[in-house]
């Protein structure tokens, strides 16, 4: 998507089809005001316990500036996933600048609840199940 290479430390990395689904949901979450943009705000949502899942850009340079997020997300039992492009993530977030991380937040009466739950299941499956099985049609 962009000229920068994807870092091998960026795991789990969404494939092309799942990336489109993730970015679509991020865009909808932005419209419903259920999105926090940037690594610092994603960290805050994780610490406050209001994050549903975290999306990070795999072409971040240096990647180490957001590698604290997977550790924090694992501590809080929040699924996370990497997408290949920070520019595409920024567009999905509704800004013109690249975004290296974002967090979709909770909202009880949200119309996105079922989509968020489905995507959470897919991110968990990618991380734990798909490295061993090559059939990704479940998502």
Automatic annotation (TrEMBL):
Listed Gene3D superfamilies: 3.30.1330.30
InterPro entries named in the record: eL8/uL1-like, H/ACA_rnp_Nhp2-like, Ribosomal_eL30-like_sf, Ribosomal_eL8-like_CS, Ribosomal_eL8/eL30/eS12/Gad45, Ribosomal_eL8/Nhp2
Keyword Nucleus (UniProt): yes
Key words, A-Z: mRNA processing, mRNA splicing, Nucleus, Ribonucleoprotein, RNA-binding, Spliceosome
Localization, UniProt: Nucleus, Nucleolus
One GO CC annotation: spliceosomal complex
GO terms of biological process kind: mRNA splicing, via spliceosome; ribosome biogenesis
Ribosomal protein eL8/eL30/eS12/Gadd45 domain mapped to chain residues: 23-111
Nucleus found in the keyword field: yes
Domain of life: Eukaryota
Coiled-coil stretches noted in the UniProt entry, renumbered to this chain: none
Pfam family, one: Ribosomal_L7Ae
A molecular function (GO) term: RNA binding
Summary of the function given for this chain in its UniProt record: Common component of the spliceosome and rRNA processing machinery.
Family: Belongs to the eukaryotic ribosomal protein eL8 family.
PANTHER family, sorted: RIBOSOMAL PROTEIN L7AE FAMILY MEMBER
Annotated protein name in UniProt: NHP2-like protein 1
């Amino acid at each position: 998507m962009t000229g920068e290479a994807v870092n091998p430390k960026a795991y789990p990395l969404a494939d092309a089809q799942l990336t489109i689904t993730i970015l679509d949901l991020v865009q909808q979450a932005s419209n419903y005001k259920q999105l926090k943009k940037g690594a610092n705000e994603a960290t805050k949502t994780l610490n406050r316990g209001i994050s549903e899942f975290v999306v990070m850009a795999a072409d971040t340079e240096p990647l180490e500036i957001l590698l604290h997020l997977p550790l924090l997300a694992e501590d809080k039992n929040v699924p996370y996933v990497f997408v290949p492009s920070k520019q595409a993530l920024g567009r999905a977030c509704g800004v013109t600048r690249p975004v290296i991380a974002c967090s979709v937040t909770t909202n009880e009466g949200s119309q996105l609840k079922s989509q968020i739950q489905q995507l959470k299941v897919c991110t968990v499956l990618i991380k734990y199940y798909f490295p061993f099985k090559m059939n990704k049609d479940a998502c």
